[in-house]
Amino acid sequence: MMSRRLEVGMARILGIGGYVPDKVMTNDDWAAIVDTTDEWITTRTGIKERRFAAEDESTLDLCVHAAERALADAGLAATDVGEIIVATDTPEVYMPDTASFLQHRLGCDTVPAYDLGGSGCAGFVQALDIARSRIAFADRKVLVIGVELISRLISWQERETCVLFGDGAGAVVLGSGAGQAELLDVVAGTDGSKTDILTLVAGGTRMPFTIETARSGAHQHLEMNGREVFKQAVHRMSGGVDDVLSRIGRTIDDVALVIPHQANKRIIDAVAKKAGIELDRVFVNVQSFGNTGSASVPLGLWQAREANRIAEGDLVVLTAFGAGFHWAAAALQF
Ligand code: ACO
């Protein structure tokens, strides 16, 4: 039997799309709900406002908007899609996965569709890693989405976490044909000894969802060791940039733009410093959207491209971290 050779580097980005809901939630809006101030949020995080989904929107709606834009950008129809991966921690329902709903809503054929859930904000870049191997082995067009509707699932009483997040979705279509950018390489890793620094415990088998968990608010309680997350984020995101560049034999001086996960402006500044890149070559939109979880990197990619921050010939590096503790970085040659 003939074996297929994995041709690393054959995956290309064919289209990019993004979507954020219309409703703007400012720091002052939060200050009217919890004991916080615009000054505290701005100085600690750089966030000024974020977008929240409307009451009649759900995770699927955000996915559909971003996916349709990415497909239109690629000049493809839904029926051209050969596989769907949705990275999210805030799915449409508990079961089945959001990807199944999306496949039907978009009008794709009965192609494989699955979620990458629970990997926090690293999910989209991890999904790129999976997608490129699916393209190498199965030569199909893969729709990859990062989406979060965090505002509906986390506590609106806990000021330590609620002010950090926003809703949105970003999507790319990948394939082996001519495209906008070649996915040169992806690095990814997980440190499972750090599951406790960012976790939402209730709802799983360890603490099933009950009247008591609902009464206590445990089902919406995000446990976060902010300082440890901060340290790990800087270490792993800058390490991801170094690793992916060394794998492709390039240096930080060759990079036109780094698009990091948008958790916090102070984290982004520290990552840039450690990676050795000036801030004018780092994309930042955390001030407008907050932390949109697994949507943040594809949303950044979409916005950067729309704002003409990316030109043909540019080397662009994506880097992300998330609960797990996961990290992943990707190099794109436009
Ligand atoms: N408004 C006012 N005060 C607040 C708020 C708020 N929204 N939240 C916390 N505080 C208070 C705390 O109660 C605490 O008060 P205390 O000192 O009286 O106990 C104090 O502020 C904490 O202040 P600092 O320790 O100085 O806060 P720090 O500088 O560590 O900033 C932050 C906190 C912003 C959470 C920071 O640690 C951080 O950014 N960590 C990374 C967290 C992150 O990005 N998480 C992303 C989640 S998911 C992901 O992206 C993978």
Report on this model:
The protein is α+β, with helices and mostly antiparallel strands and 334 residues long. Helices cover 34% and strands 23% of the residues. Helix 8 packs parallel to helix 9. A hairpin with a 3-residue loop joins strand 12 (315-322) and strand 13. It starts with 11 loop residues before the first strand and ends with a strand. Bound molecules: acetyl coenzyme *A (ACO).
Identify the notable features of this structure and list them briefly.
23% strand; 334 residues; nine-stranded mixed sheet; binds acetyl coenzyme *A; disordered N terminus; Peroxisomal Thiolase, Chain A, domain 1; globular; alpha+beta; 13 strands
Summarize the structure.
By secondary structure, the protein is an alpha+beta fold. The protein has helices at 27-31, 38-45, 59-74, 98-106, 123-138, 159-162, 211-216, 226-247, 265-275, 286-289, 296-306, and strands at 12-19, 23-26, 49-52, 83-88, 113-117, 142-148, 168-175, 181-190, 198-199, 223-224, 257-260, 315-322, 326-333. 34% of the residues lie in helices and 23% in strands.
